[in-house]
Amino acid sequence: MKLETKEYEVKMTKAIGAYEQNLASIRAGQANSAILNKVNFEYWGTPTPINTMADIRVADAKTLTITPYDATTLKEMEKAILASDIGITPTNDGKIIRLVFPQPTEERRRELVKSVQKMGEDAKVAIRNIRRDANDMAKKMKKDGEMTEDEQKASEKAIQDLTDKYSKEVDAVTAKKEKEIMQI
User: Which pLDDT belongs to residue 29?
Assistant: First the structure.
């Protein structure tokens, strides 16, 4: 009986999805509402994500507008954006908060590329950890007599093929994001 690889493939797909979600929060000089996904503000004593309490729109390539559903939260949202690590100073006209994305410097773009590469390496480590778990399961099944040595080798090869496939996908996603950052 060969090891069922479907569950490990699903885990690898989720690792890539998480990596892509993390990449979306990297500011590359383009207006992108995903940078606000991790910004919370105090609303009735509870940390609340801005994106659940406001209409966030890309006004143009460099500007994001944030229109709170509750106008009384405008100041708290502005404070939360200032306190966050997104590195953009919001402007507030009393009804709407505007975030104008500055053009990143060459040095800043290189820093962004380095952080993208590190995130890519972290995603590959997660994929390799999934491979290790699958290989451990195959060894356990062999030890328990549930599979032959040939089936174990075939299972390990199938898992390695999946690992290679998803590692290449991480490389492709990383290369695409690097190109996006450097073309600004």
Answer: 64
